[in-house]
Amino acid sequence: MKVADMRIPISYCLIFTAVLAFEMGCGEQARPVSIFNMGEKVQAGPLIYTVIEAEWKPELGSGDKVHTPSQRFLLVHLTATNSSAETVSIPSLTLTDSSGQTYNEAISTAEVPSLWGLVRRVKPADTMEGYILFDVAPKSYKLKLESDAGSSDVSMVEMPLQFGLGRRDIPSALGNR
Questions:
Q1: Prediction pTM value
Q2: 27, part of any domain
Q3: CA torsion angle for 110, 146, 104, 125 (degrees, to 10)?
Q4: Parallel, antiparallel, or unpaired for β 94-96 and 102-104?
Q5: Cα–Cα distance, 15 to 77 (Å, whole number)
Q6: Are 141 and 157 contacting, i.e. CB atoms less than 8 angstroms apart?
C-alpha cells in the first residue's frame, strides 16, 4: 500500500475536529437553578442571603424630595452574611420575570434608610442588612443570587406579587369597653 493511499482527506479531518469540539462544548452541562422562598437562607458562594420582604411603593420620599418611578418601586429587604475568611463584595442583584427578562437594581437618591449602595463589602463573619431597589412593573419576579457575576452557580428567590394590605380595624359589635 502506498503512503498516498493512506492519507485522510482534509475534509474528513475538518468534520472530525468540528464534531469533537461540539461534543466537548456540550459536555459541560448547566447546573440546575435552585429556587427558594422569601425567608429561607440561600448560599451563593461565600455569601448567605436571606430575603426578608419585598414591598411595592408608588413613590419614595416626601414633599419636595419625592421620587417617582417610571413604573413602580420594588423595595427588597434582605441580609447578606459573609461565611468566608476574607472580605467579599456583594455583587449587583437582578430580577427575572416569567418570560426570562432581567432587570438591574435602580439607582436612587431617595432617602431610604439602609439602602445598599453600589459598592458593598462585607467583612468575614459579618452581616449586612438593608434594602435594594428596582423600578419595574408590578408582577411576580425571582431575585437572582450568584456567587460571582456571570457564575454558573445560580439560586433564585421567588417574590410573588403581593401588595401590602394594612389590617383594618373592624369595629366591635360590643363597642369599645
A1: 0.73
A2: no
A3: 10
A4: antiparallel
A5: 54
A6: no
CATH at 87: 2.60.40.1240
Nearest C-alpha neighbor of 80 from the set 69, 72, 88: 88
pLDDT tens digit string along 41-90? 999 999 999 999 999 999 998 888 889 999 999 999 999 999 999 999 99
The number of distinct structural domains making up the chain is 1
In a domain, 6, yes or no: no
CA distance linking residue 61 with residue 26, whole number of Å: 50
Structural domain boundaries, residue 153:
34-159
Whether residue 139 is contained in a domain is answered as yes
Q: How many angstroms separate the CA atoms of 96 and 152, rounded?
A: 16
CA distances from 75 to 30, 60, 62, 79, 164 (A): 31, 10, 16, 13, 12
Per the CB < 8 A criterion, the answer to whether 157 and 51 are in contact is yes
Residue 95 contacts residue 106 (beta carbons within 8 Å): no
Domain presence at residue 146: yes
Radius of gyration of the chain (CA): 25
- The pLDDT tens digits for 131-164 are 999 999 999 999 999 866 555 678 999 999 886 6
